[in-house]
Amino acid sequence: MLQLILSIQHSAISNPVLSTAQQCQLHAITIALAALVPHVLLLPRLAEYINQIIEARREEAIHLLPPLQEEYEHLTPSKMPNKMPYLMIDQMALGDCLKAHGIEASRLQSASPYSGGANLAHRHSWVEAGAAQGRDSLADISAG
């Protein structure tokens, strides 16, 4: 779950196609999901870390917290999510919190299965399989 949260956060920061509203919404979703984890797994140190981020965002970047808004037009360039890395969930800090509870944190350091990075092998789709057999459309695939 923490890998997924970090991947969503990374996407919100690094995806150039996302609008400002989408970036802010994704950051709000990541902190909401992150806040659930220590309550379900009873990890007080992780809860403390996430609460520190929430409090800092409450003071400096309320737009990075729920509730989600449709528009974030009031943001100045200095309040854009990519200008506030100190308010993001830190992978190393998460690992330290998990280690403090005796939980192996090495999976956080490995490549995330959610990131879609270049290290993942290409998986052929059924569309490509149909095209390889000379079928050009879904109708051709259904007929074959």
UniProtKB/TrEMBL annotation:
**Which InterPro entries does this UniProt record tie to the protein?**
EFR3_Homologs (IPR051851)
| Any one cellular-component term (Gene Ontology) | plasma membrane
GO biological-process terms attached to the record: protein localization to plasma membrane
Q: What's the domain of life for this entry?
A: Eukaryota
> What name is this protein filed under?
EFR3 cmp44E-like protein
Give the organism's phylogenetic lineage. Eukaryota, Metazoa, Ecdysozoa, Arthropoda, Hexapoda
